[in-house]
Design goal:
By secondary structure, this protein is an alpha+beta fold. It folds into 2 domains: 213 residues, D-Maltodextrin-Binding Protein, domain 2; 222 residues, Dipeptide-binding Protein, domain 3 (Roll). Strands 1, 8, 9, 10, 11, 12, 13, 14, 15, 16 and 17 form an 11-stranded mixed beta sheet that branches. A 4-stranded antiparallel beta sheet has the order 4-5-7-6. Strand 6 and strand 7 form a beta hairpin. The longest helix is centred in the last third of the chain and has 17 residues. The protein starts with 8 loop residues before the first helix and ends with a strand.
Length: 529
Amino acid sequence: MKHLKRTLLASALMLPLAMPAAMAETPADVLVVAQNIDDIVAIDPAQAYEFTSGELVSNLYDRLVQYDAVDTTTLAPGLAAEWTADAEAKTITFTLRDGATFASGNPVTAADVIYSFSRVVKLNLTPAFILTQLGWTADNIGDMVTGEGNTVTVKYDGDFSPAFVLNVLAARPASIVDSALVQENEVDGDMGNAWLNANAAGSGPFTLQRYTAGQMVRMQSNPTYFNGAPAIDSVIIRHVAESATQQLLLEQGDVDLARNLTPDQVASLDSEGLKVETYPQAAVHFLSFNQKTDSLTDPSVWEAARYLVDYKGMTDSIIKGQMEVHQAFWPKGFPGSYDETPFSYDPEKAKQILEEAGIETPITVTLDVINAAPFTDMAQSLQASFADAGINFEILPGTGSQVITKYRERSHEAMLLYWGPDFMDPHSNAKAFAYNSDNSDDNYAATTTWRNAWAVPTEMNEKTMAALSESDADTRLEMYRELQQEVQAESPIVIMFQATYQVAMDADVSGYVNGATSDFVYYRLVEKD
């Protein structure tokens, strides 16, 4: 039962809600969400690159193939009912779903798919790189994506597994737009970009009824959605920047979900009629050692470090509710993950490893860390636990940009940081954690391996590229699991945790789905009892 007490807070906030101010509960057919949405720069799928904009795109649009609300771990048919891959010819042929329509009522056709992919490549905005890695350019896209009737043929240029290509086509910029509607709203050759940053032209489970930047989003159920109309009639996302205000609104019954509460606020919730759900996220958190620092190059130091992290101590206290123990580079909850956690805090074993290897201690190492919670707390925990084996960290806090700049320059010694994939294919992280074919200073690479100056063994490099091109899907996933075991066992990068995300909600809400990335936030299964 929601609290019936009310204050004047809601009216003082002057947030736009289409509901009476005196209502004690949110309407039964409307889900009201309190969330900080000021990160949104664009909602056009060809430009959207922020967390919140990704959530909107996933609820307003479909892709040929997609990770759906019913099971965010399995690649499922979207606007394509089926597909066949020819690895040798480097093509995938999709058969479009019968009867699928856009919210406008226009049928989804092969021409819409061709236009959507071509539009992303030609606009060449921030997320375009996800599609152009398939060898697509503004000059060749007309040959690489073709269609006739209800069939679309996608060609790619690169030694890629079809499974990799499918995961690329399940990413945000591969969303299919209503080409007729978008072209009607084109201005000065912008391919409808300005219009799509205030409107939507998708076939997804919801339509965009209203979007006011920095204030609110209202999505309406799409009754013609091919997977069935959502259970809830509409979703209102209110921009509430302060987490304390989100908590108050939730406890008063003014909203159904609070998306940005801190762990302390979650712990202090008035639990009557409320619940908290925890969702694993794709980001993995790690400690890494720069191989330009002589005292950190011995593999015995890397091995000992794995036993000097107080995994349980941190997850039971300073990062409780924010992270869980995970010791492999691909996040749990996605095909190809390796979820074994063989390492635990054992300083005596760590000291034995260092002693048997002839490593002289103490070793003094600077540790760069973002100057914000929980990272500084984590750094202090590492400082205390590593000291037990004679490895002394000098903590160097800095802003996010300062820390990242040092990392990119390879001028750090040890680094506490995190990493998330650009799209949900294991290669996205394998390239970051298990591949570095040119370790020279002038060969900058946006990977953890190059940034830590780790010259990855040739055999591991070869395995990473072999997994990328492996055509058998099951074999490919097993190859990535084996790679993760190797990196887990012997690498200067100690993967410790996987991020988790807590959402507080009214107890009568069910069916909310929050997958491992912002692209996997779904409202179509939500019900309110």
